Amino acid sequence: MPDGSTTLVANLSPFPNGGETVYAEVRAGLTLAEMLGERAAHSLDVRVGGYSVPRELWTKVRPKRGALIHVTLYPQGGKARKWLAIIVMVVVTILTYGAAAGWFGAAGTALGTAGSTAALALSVGISVVGSLLVNALIAPPTPKGLSGGDPFQQLASITGTSNQANPYGVIPCVVGTMRYFPPHAALPYTEISGDDQYLRMLLDLGYGDFDVSDIQIGGTDIASYQDVEYEITTTPTLFTQDIYEASVGIPLNDYGNTATRTTQTATTEISLDLVGPGGVFGVGAKNNTVTGTIGFNITYRATGSTGSWTPIGSASGLTLTNGLASTGGAGISLTSGARKVYRGGVRWKVPSGQYDVTVTRTTAKGIGFPGAIDTNSVSDQVAWSVLRSISPQNPSTTGTTKLAVRIKASDQLQGVIQNMSVLLAQKVPMWDKANQVWLAAAVTQNPAWLYAWLMTRCEAVIRRLPDSRLDLDGIADWADECAAKGLVCNFVMDSGRALGDVLRDVLAAGRASFGLRNGKYSAVRDLAQTVPVQMFTPSNSRGFSYARVFSDLPHALRVKFTNPEANYQQDMRMVYADGYTEANATRFEELDLRMVTDPDAAWKLGRYHLSVAYNRPNTYTLNADIENLVCERGDLVRVAHDITEWGQAWGRVKAVSGDGLTITLDGPVDLDSGTTYRLQVRKSDGSQAAQNVTTAAGSNLTTLTLAASTGAAVGDLWVLGAVSQGTADLIVRAVRPSDNLNAELTLVDAAPAVLTADSGTPPTFVSSITGQAWCAAPDAPDLTLAITPGPVNNGGVGGPHLIGSIPPGGGILRGGPGTYRISRIAAL
Q1: Binning pLDDT at 50, 70 and 90, where does residue 806 land?
Q2: What confidence score (pLDDT) does residue 781 get?
Q3: CA distance linking residue 591 with residue 605, whole number of Å
Q4: What is the mean pLDDT of residues 5-28?
């Protein structure tokens, strides 16, 4: 809209199957009369910026860009009240199409039909996901990426794909059970031991008390590697120093070749490696190996000093490995005859400080190998590969659990390991409701127990709550529900997310939302309820209204979840609404449940949210005085109102007689012949009762006779209506307190179908990554067995043999198709 837009909010007469609260964007610069249309009803109250505009000024007032226009239609009977609804809906339709086209602009023109389809998909995605987040009692997780970055993608960049250094970053914390790539707690380094090189790593497993299992490098179990040591502890011994390893890579291949490098500050020990990539040896006349010696000088001094250099021979704690020896002063000798990669190390202690280190070769190329044919028969190319700066302090003081690893690098690794992953299972306590005690911490994926742990005991949370602030019994009931439905929650926290966002994801995985129960932190659940906590009518409420979200509902959800059978990669399953299948579904939307690691749990949550979108499109609001205090989020209430035609009349009981069978009302009512009426009563103790009315049809009746006593008393609230049109069952979605104990209540339809949408057995899930059905057993081998006709010599064993053949794709025997000797047959 070149002139900008104004927002028009129209509160239409909300009769059933009729008008709703409608929001529209209208072009700025139009008059109110042009916005509303010449056939707008005469009963409209139009306010611009909160000020009422009389009808005679509609042709003169032109709301500016960004202005807020409120239009209220009061019931006047007849069909006049429908005109505004028709006009506004036309505006909404035009706006929706225009907005979608504007979003895509030239791209839509270039794409043609495809562009139009994409615009529709975007419009649907915003309306449905947004409405669930705003209007649902149990909201789905916030779509990742809609609020300044995807926390899960941020997490994957640190712990999801490789081991990375994250200095001063967030310390990880596993929630539930998860495979992940822990970050470095200190920079890794290598060391030389004999002819072999070893890698030392210190990884931070994060906060908590957990079981560690299935340590892998890439996809290979760590036990498959040779000469591996590792420990899981808060006080590691395999990695106890702060070591900074700088790559040098300077060749020292001839006499006088020299290089100087500088250590880190606060260095107390220096280490360097000399490497001969082609081996260090000579070749004699008979192609025999000749051992030789190469000389080097190593000196050092404090950085910035102009004094003399200190020879390596006078250093304390001097250690030389693999054929290196001190020759006095600055000199060292390298003696070798190995026809393989040579690695030698030098290490010495220094007072704490920063140092310059110089290494110089003192032997010419090819010299020092007596017995070699000539200088061309000598392999003596040597390089200064690394310089290490070593400090004695503990490299990590977080107090979290570490994984320290020392692994042989020679002939096994290529560089520093970047793909070491672990399977961590967090242990959390669970509340014993029967005995009112905490049970010992144990591994669990139950969202309820993880929710309680995060708020009370998780070390990653700075401000934790005491147990007394939690509704532990209510959380225990929620845990039972999660267990019964198979709902799970597993993810890694280390993206610096707010605790509230983390808790919302855990709650969403358990089909719950944040709530308070009797002043204690609890979880609001969507439960089947038969006993309402309150009844509202125009006699004890005011300001009733309701709105409806209009959107093209999706036929199916693409539900993202984390698949442990695919090495904890993101997977997806389709969840269809009632009446839709793969054959006829055309509108899709995405639901992000990456904290869920079970496809059946993802299916159940997807079915629930689809059902909410289909069965709870309306949102109701009303204001009540002190009578709202009994209502909390998730409670069932009953509501009567003339706008929605719930109930026919209401008021207060004036008198009770005849053993409670005769009720005197505080106002007249009319009873039509042929209609069965029921009187519903909310008594002073909050309980409710209902009985059919036996009074004959008539007008202006103030006394009714009931089929049985309701137990009503003077002052109790009553509602009269036809049996099929009494009060409506609604669920409290929100309570917004105001002054003097008043509150605004937001309500949604009870819609019992929502609670059974996830019942039954979920369809079989076949992973799009592995191609396998969930938890499916491996294919059975298809073997063809036969007896050999005569003696054979197979592995030194003679005589007839039972042999088997496996066709391509026919089984799980390793080695593929071929003929296999059966060495042993056992009865199964």
Answers
A1: very low
A2: 53
A3: 9
A4: 65
Measured at the CA of 541, the angle between CA 539 and CA 542, to 5 degrees, comes to: 110
> What is the rounded distance in angstroms from the CA atom of residue 584 to the CA atom of residue 784?
44
CA–CA gap between residue 152 and residue 246 (Å, rounded): 33
Alpha carbon 388 to its chain centroid, in Å, reads 40
Q: How crowded is the C-beta side of 821, counted as CA atoms within 13 Å?
A: 12
Average pLDDT, the chain: 82
Q: Count CB neighbours of 564 within 10 A.
A: 17
Q: Parallel, antiparallel, or unpaired: how do β-strands 5-11 and 68-73 relate?
A: parallel
Instruction: Using the predicted structure, report yes or no on whether residue 205 has a pLDDT greater than 70.
Output: yes
> Among candidates 367, 387, 384, 385, which has minimal Cα distance to 375?
367
Q: Is the pLDDT of residue 2 over 90?
A: no
Can you tell me the distance from the alpha carbon of 715 to that of 682, in angstroms, rounded to the nearest whole number?
A: 10
Distance CA 214, CA 202 (A): 17
The answer on pLDDT for 789 being more than 70 is: no
- Residue closest to 484 by CA, chosen among 423, 527, 429, 428: 527
Of 741, 733, 730, the C-alpha closest to 515 is 733
Q: Is the pLDDT of residue 807 over 50?
A: no
Contact 647, 728 (CB under 8 A): no
Question: So what's the pLDDT on residue 128?
Answer: 59
b/e 177-195 (16+ beta carbons within 10 angstroms → b) = bbbbbbbbbbebbbbbeeb
Q: Which are the contacts of 314, defined by CB distance < 8 A and separation ≥ 6? A: 329
Tokens of 138: 């149990």
Q: Is the pLDDT of residue 607 over 90?
A: yes
SS3 367: coil
Q: Both tokens of residue 380?
A: 């003596």
Q: Is the pLDDT of residue 324 over 90?
A: yes
Q: Under 8 Å CB-to-CB from 276, ≥6 apart: which residues?
A: 336, 341, 342, 343, 379, 380, 381, 382, 383
Pairing between strand 310-311 and 292-302? Answer: antiparallel
Q: Is the pLDDT of residue 529 over 80?
A: yes
Q: E strands within 683-759?
A: 688-692, 698-705, 717-722, 728-737, 743-749
Q: Which residues make Cβ contacts (< 8 Å) with residue 326, sequence separation at least 6?
A: 312, 313, 318, 320, 332
